[in-house]
Every structure is written in structure tokens, then in C-alpha cells.
Write a sequence for this structure.
């Protein structure tokens, strides 16, 4: 397999993983953002930015890997190495978004003390 084919396969695989995660997180993220932002338009804007970040960051990480086509390397291992970097980028994007959201959630949604639920019943 040529270097170009390996590279393209790695990018496509990374993109597929990223789109899968974006699809999985889209609705829960929309709900949280609607609650935090106050309006649907604001939530849609921040949702779009989050989804773009969760798509592009993994692809950028994956683009930084150059497959090594040599006698000792195999196509599957080279693609796996490129996808590994893409998944690291995806994880980074998700963690950053989660950290940012957690700071806003803790400011806007006070957590009730452990005993207060029992006291009200």
C-alpha cells in the first residue's frame, strides 16, 4: 500500500471515529448548552463550535502522523498509529470541552447538600 493510501485511510478512519463521537454527544451537549446559555440560538452557536472542535482537532492530530512504509512496517499498524493520534486529539477536545462546561455548570447549578433531601421529606 502506498504512503498516500495509508495516510488517506488513517484520516478517513479518524474522521469516522470523530463523527461517531459527535453524533453520540450532540443531543446531550445541546441540552446542557440550552440550559446554560438561556436561549436556543446561543446554545446552537456553542454547539456548532463544540462539534467543529471535536471534528477538526482529531483530524489535525492525525495529520501530524506520517506513515512509514518500509520492509518492517505493516499497513495495519501504520493506520492504527495514525488513528491513535487522531483519537488522542479527540479525547483532548472532549476533555477540554467537558472542563469548560463543568466550570459553568458548577456556577449555575448549585449542588444541594447531602442531607437536605431527607430534611424536606
Amino acid at each position: 500500500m502506498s504512503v498516500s493510501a495509508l495516510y488517506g485511510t488513517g484520516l478517513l478512519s479518524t474522521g469516522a471515529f470523530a463523527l461517531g463521537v459527535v453524533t453520540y454527544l450532540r443531543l446531550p451537549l445541546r441540552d446542557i448548552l440550552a440550559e446554560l446559555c438561556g436561549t436556543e440560538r446561543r446554545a446552537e452557536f456553542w454547539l456548532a463550535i463544540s462539534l467543529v472542535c471535536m471534528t477538526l482537532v482529531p483530524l489535525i492530530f492525525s495529520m501530524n502522523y506520517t506513515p512509514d512504509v518500509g520492509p518492517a512496517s505493516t499497513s495495519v499498524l501504520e493506520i492504527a498509529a495514525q488513528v491513535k493520534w487522531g483519537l488522542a486529539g479527540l479525547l483532548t477536545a472532549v476533555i477540554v470541552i467537558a472542563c469548560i462546561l463543568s466550570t459553568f455548570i458548577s456556577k449555575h447549578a448549585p449542588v444541594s447538600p447531602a442531607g437536605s433531601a431527607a430534611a424536606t421529606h
